[in-house]
Write the C-alpha cells for this entry.
Amino acid sequence: MEAIVLAAGKGTRMCSELPKVLHPVFGKPVLGYVLETLAGAGMKNPFVVVGYKAEEVRSFLKVYGATAVLQREQKGTGHAVMAAGPALKNRQGPVLIWPGDMPLVKPETLEKFLAEHKKSRAHVSVLSCFQEDPSGYGRIMREEGHFAAIREELDATPEEHVIREVNTGIYLFDKKVLFEALERVGRDNQKGEYYLTDTVEILRREGYCVEAFSLASAEEGQGINSQKDLATVTKKINEREITKHQEEGVTFMAPEQTFIAPDVKIGKGTTIYPWCFIESGVEIGRECAIGPFAKIRHDTVIGDGAVIGSFVEVNRSHLGKKVLAKHLTYLGDAVIGDGTNIGAGTVTANFDGKRKHQTLIGKNVMIGSNTVFVAPVRIPDGARTGAGSVVIPKIKIKKGDVVVGVPARPISKKKR
Ligand code: UD1
Ligand code: MG
C-alpha cells in the first residue's frame, strides 16, 4: 500500500520559524514518530508532501527512506494530496493519508483501521475518535448514524460545534475516486483553502461508500497545532515510555517528574528518583539507583548496581558495574571500570574548544572530591586521586598509584 504524509504546512499556530513537523519530542522530530509508525506497518517508502522550508524537511527524510514531493504553495490539505498525485506509482488501489502532526496513533490502531476498511469495502474510510474537548478538529457529521461529511471548526454551526466525534486526519482512500473527488473540491470556506475533508461529502453525494471508524482513543487523536499541543504530546509519549518500564520492573518514585525518551533500556530492580532526564539510546543495568536530578545523555551505558546520584550528568560514557557517582559530577566521553567510586564534584574536562577527548578510568579506582580530568587521560586500576587534583595528559600514572595536586603527580607511600 502507498502512503502519503502531509508535512508541507508551516504550522502558523506554533509561532515558530521551525517547520511544525520538525519540532522535536525528546530530540526526535514529530515527523519521525509518524514515519516510524508507518514503517512498523510495512510502509517504508511513503511520499511526504513538503513545502515550507522544504529543504530542511527533505534532508530529515533521508534517514527514513521516504520520498519528498513538493507542494509549492500551501493551499490546504486537499491541495497537498493533489501535489502527491503524479508521484504515486499506480493510479488504482488503496492509499493511506496521514498528517505529519499526528504522532500518537498506535500501530495496532492502524492495523484495526486497515482491517475495517477492507471489510467495509468503503471508497474512503476516516479514522475518528471522541474528544472531551473537540475544539480545533474537524467534526464527523452523521445522518441517521451514517457518516455524511466532515465539518471544519471554523465552518461549523453552534449545533455542529458540540459534536465530539472528530477527524484524526488519517484516511484510507481508493486512489481513483480520491483524485476524481479532489478535482471537484473548491475553496469556499472560512480559510479559503482546498480541504481534503470536503471529498467525503462529494463522494457520498455521488453514491460512493464513505465510512468513519472511531477506533482511535482520545489520546491517540491528539494532534499538534500549538506549543501547548506539543507539550501534551511530549507528556503522553513520556507516560507511555514510563508505563513500559514499570511493566518490566523499574521503580519510578515520581513518574510525573521523570522524563524518559523512547528507546531507553532499563534493567529490572532499578529505581529512578524524581527529576531525572534520560535521553534516547541510553542503557541502564539492573538494580541501579538514578537521581534525583540526574541527566543521562545519549550513548551512555550504565552497569548493574551503579548509583548515579543528585546533580550528576553522564554523556556518551560507559560506566561499569557498581560504579558510584553520587553527587555533583559531570562525566562526558568517559569509560569507567567496575567498582570505581567517583567523588563529589568530579568533572571530566572533555572539550578543548575544538574536539572531545576521552577519560579512561580503570576498575576499583577511588576518585577524590573535586578531581578534574583534563582529557585525554588514563587512570589505571586501583589508583587514587586526592581531593582537588587536576589530572593532565602528560603525567604517567601506574596501577595502584596515588596522585595529588595541580597538576596531579604520584606521591610516595610515605607522604600519603
Ligand atoms: C486537519 C483536518 C481536520 C482534522 C485535523 C486532525 C482538514 C481541512 N482538516 O485540520 O479535519 O481534525 O487535521 O489533526 O484537512 N498541510 C500541507 N499542506 C497544506 C496544508 C496542510 O501539507 O497546504 C499539512 C500540514 O503540514 C499538517 C497537515 O497537513 O501536517 C494537517 O494540516 P493542519 O493545518 O494541521 O490541519 P488541521 O487544522 O489540524
Ligand atoms: Mg493539524
About this structure: The pocket of uridine-diphosphate-N-acetylglucosamine (ligand 1) is lined by residues 6-9, 20-21, 49, 51, 71, 74-77, 79-80, 99-102, 137-138, 150, 152, 166-169, 195-197, 223, 225 (CB under 6 Å). The chain has two domains: 2-214, 227-410. The longest strand covers residues 165-174.
